[in-house]
Amino acid sequence: MKKLLFAGALLASRAVPGQSVSPTTAPAARDSLSHAVEVVQPKPAPVADKNELKYNLNTSGTHFFKVTFLNQTWLRLNQSNPGTTVIQEAKPQTLDIGLRRTRMQMFGQLNDRAFIYLQFGMNNFNYLNGFPGFNTAGTPSNRKIAAFFHDAVGEYLVFRDKDYLKVGGGLTIVNGLSRFSQPSVSSIMSMDVPVFAQATVDQTDEFSRKLTVYARGQVGKIDYRFALSDPFPIQTTGATPPALSSNATFALKGHHKQVQGFVAYQFLDKETNQTPGYMTGTYLGKKRMLNLEGGFVYQKNAVWHRENVADTVYQNLNLWSVAAFLDMPVSPAKGSAINAYLGYFHTDYGKDYLRFNGIMNPASGSTVTLPGVSGIQGNAFPMFGTGNVLYSQVGYLLPQDLLGRGNGALMPYAQAQIARYTRLTEPLGVYNIGLNWLIRGHNSKMTLDYQNRPYYGTSGTQLAPAGRRGQLTLQYQVFI
């Protein structure tokens, strides 16, 4: 027995040949085999970073609730249109910092058929937010009033587990004119969308959203949506409505519903169809998209103008478009991809309608006046009008290893908006070139964009181009 005990002790001491004991260890610990043995725990496997905030409502994850956050910050240098003033001082150029979009989405598939979608946030927040010091009611304005509900939608899936038909309603961007009339702004290929495609933005809608009932879905290769909207009166924009004149403006009398429809034929992959309305800007080579698209917006007696001094003439709002959309990988092995869009828009807002608009305009006024239009300062140009528009964009996602592993990817792009509006003597041309640095896809990206646009002077009853100005913008987008 003594020999067996001695052999067991000897084997135990040899089981830890590499063991070292700290000189500060107590003698009792050094003498104890239980303290001398070092137990090495296996390292846990690395956990992949999550890029979404999602709570599953069932074990399979088919029922869920999700929250997203988006912030787009701009640093911009702009050559001002002639006569531009900023808080009553002449400014030939401006440098401003702003929040183009700050949004929070909350949505989820609550059960097999019910879907809810909410979006809250603000847009175009720069140092002029809330300016001038008094609003049209004569009360002090407030720079802190900016955020609002963009969307509040409930949707019902008619056929279980099939996207054939979804019916919904609420405050929504579901729209008929084009894919850029209902863009998913977190995934756009360029720095900004072609805002002219959001045809009634902040006129008879709430930042492109209207109170709407709709039906949408995907049947085979067809993606469709049809909507009946209840437009807001022009009197509720917060600005003084334009006076009745020989040029069409939105009517101050009468109220009619708006009918909209959009159909896309998808030759290859299908569009993402989860959230109501929103259409992806670029899939960054993750899908093979080739679409032919068309849409329309119609509203009876939406606009008016004056003829023969005393006669008031009402006209219909009649907008339609046809387009082709391409977004697909070029070299899957290298991660390169192409995005391209070409669209033709017929925009009939009534006789000689024309509206200037400047995105997050960095200027507050102008010493120059043009007949029948307002808001011509800063970076504004005639964005909307009765006539026809050709819009195109193209971008190329360069190989993923160009900057080295883990350093993101580059995507240069170009945009062009060419319009022939009846109030202009010559076609309008607005051009953008830019470069995306996709640090982590759309979740973290920087965009440098240069825009070249015309400014205008008077030519009889029309407006004529008088020169051109430029704008350089750096955007940083964070999205989860």
Please name the defining characteristics of this protein.
single chain, 480 residues, mainly beta, Porin, 50% strand, disordered N terminus
- Largest sheet at a glance? 16 strands, antiparallel, barrel
Order of helices and strands: HHHEEEEEEEEEEEEEEEEEEEEEEE
According to CATH, the homologous superfamily is: Porin
Strand order of the largest sheet: 2-5-6-7-8-9-10-12-13-14-15-19-20-21-22-23
Strand content: over 45%
Q: What is the CATH third-level topology name?
A: Porin
State the name of the first-level CATH class: Mainly Beta
Query: Kindly, what is the distance between the CA atoms of the first and last residues, rounded to a whole number of angstroms?
Result: 70 Å
Q: Approximately how much helix is present in the residues?
A: under 10%
Protein name: Porin
